[in-house]
Structures
1.
Amino acid sequence: GAGVSQSPSNKVTEKGKDVELRCDPISGHTALYWYRQSLGQGLEFLIYFQGNSAPDKSGLPSDRFSAERTGGSVSTLTIQRTQQEDSAVYLCASSQTPGTGYEQYFGPGTRLTVT
Amino acid sequence: DQQVKQNSPSLSVQEGRISILNCDYTNSMFDYFLWYKKYPAEGPTFLISISSIKDKNEDGRFTVFLNKSAKHLSLHIVPSQPGDSAVYFCAASGGNNNDMRFGAGTRLTVKP
């Protein structure tokens, strides 16, 4: 079956511009996560959606970052007024259920470069 | 704060030998641990997991060991194959958190 998809695969933007990154999770997965991986760093948790509950935004690095998930499926991560330190690979993952004892399925990521 | 640490950024092993990747964590609330494997230009894929009620889980050539008292886990790959060359991420979750904490990754190179 189809896995997690993300678009675009690559995005180059100028400092100060806004960007939107899209994630299509696996159908039926109720949990959706956004992570980012900066060069030489591990995967940094950003935000988590579970069903219709309020998202866990505890990992968002600043108020320039926001995300929404429409209809419990597709999610969009928006970065406003991008900065060079926002350059990273942004990964989306989904899973059937949250909590322990689950595995997450990752998309291929969006490589964001802020010039 | 880095709650999951992989202190070796890279590891090189000869084909057929054992690869041992290490991971340390600081949060005693973690009760589920996973290893993910990542090839270039792809997202991480799940490899093997272990819950805190166990100290060993084996799946084919892959075995994960958990030492709760030391807050340490390791992934053993034996025999190592060139196709195992990838970045391996250790991850942990548990307690009241719904998110998963990842280490920085270890790049494994298996030489033919």
Note: Chain B is about 0% helix and 55% strand.
2.
Amino acid sequence: AQTVTQSQPEMSVQEAETVTLSCTYDTSESNYYLFWYKQPPSRQMILVIRQEAYKQQNATENRFSVNFQKAAKSFSLKISDSQLGDTAMYFCAFMKHNFGNEKLTFGTGTRLTIIP
Amino acid sequence: KAGVTQTPRYLIKTRGQQVTLSCSPISGHRSVSWYQQTPGQGLQFLFEYFSETQRNKGNFPGRFSGRQFSNSRSEMNVSTLELGDSALYLCASRTTLAAQSKQFFGPGTRLTVL
């Protein structure tokens, strides 16, 4: 079974600064996907960024980027130029590549607060 | 294109009752997954439906069931409610079962069991 660990329950950072959220995972699979989801107070879960395990290049989406270390089973999220709207719970998630038998396994989340 | 919609948004039930939650996926999406979110257990996968067939199931008791209709809308049913079933129930839809198919989540249904 896969497990996802987020060791930082809460973090806070000043607006416009850069923050990095940590995630580690455990799996014996070689082909999988990793995700960061954001859940603001409105509760709507929003996909922030996705990484395919077979790709060595780290994924980026505007101010969001990841540091994917496959051997170390580490998948951190970097938010640059943080904004007040980035305040939310952030969940790291894992999905193995097994057609028709995929589910998201989530970490426990990191509550990020952006301070004005 | 409209997003994933869930009804009702809030629900209060008492122990022993049953409840049905509804999820309408994004137009063209044929897969619907359900997740339970609680402070204690976090986010846990319940099941996934594709083309009216359950394709994957999480580790939940048989009191939790679901179904999918020909228009891809899905319902989740919980019978004999327990206090521990109080949670935010999220559904997510995607176009296919392929792993590269992104999942889009609805706003959730907040169920409170008294």
Note: Chain A is about 0% helix and 50% strand.
3.
Amino acid sequence: DTEVTQTPKHLVMGMTNKKSLKCEQHMGHRAMYWYKQKAKKPPELMFVYSYEKLSINESVPSRFSPECPNSSLLNLHLHALQPEDSALYLCAGRLILGALKRILGTGELFFGEGSRLTVL
Amino acid sequence: SQKIEQNSEALNIQEGKTATLTCNYTNYSPAYLQWYRQDPGRGPVFLLLIRENEKEKRKERLKVTFDTTLKQSLFHITASQPADSATYLCALAPGNQFYFGTGTSLTVIP
């Protein structure tokens, strides 16, 4: 079982549609991530939320709009996308370890199964 | 910008042999490096972390080395099995962001 749940698993949308991807976690992750992954390429970082605040935006086009309503939920709002935006969108969570735990813990990312997006 | 290269896109080995994957990076001095496994159509799964002051880390059939002078990590799978076939990714975290290497697709042939 994954500790991070993403919905929908598959999404097909037209270039004029507005849709959203949803990511939910109940494991206490305080850093949340959105990645985009094209076929046979590594995950590419898009956004990082730290304690529900957007901390990193990797120069992502404004047609992608992230939102973090609370510590358990992360959304990615999609509007006016292009066919080249078709990809697997991955959400990940990470515990932000305290100074002592950082020595002992690994602070790894826990990924969801992803949402496969197709833009027509 | 951060550049993380993994030795080859694809690696085929015979079952029972040791697979060795390479991760090279530039423009950064990470405190630690992580390795992940990704199966087709699924999210990456964490395997191992190695810190800058550790030369080697082991977990079952997995072994990771870290050479901060060469800016390189090696990932070994001993006694490889067909079930080890997957894409393996190294990752660096300069702060709270995680950047992944180019990935190596490993196929273990029975």
Note: Chain A touches chain B at residues 2, 4, 31, 33, 40-45, 48, 50, 55-56, 58, 88, 90, 92, 94, 96, 106-114, 116 (CB under 8 Å).
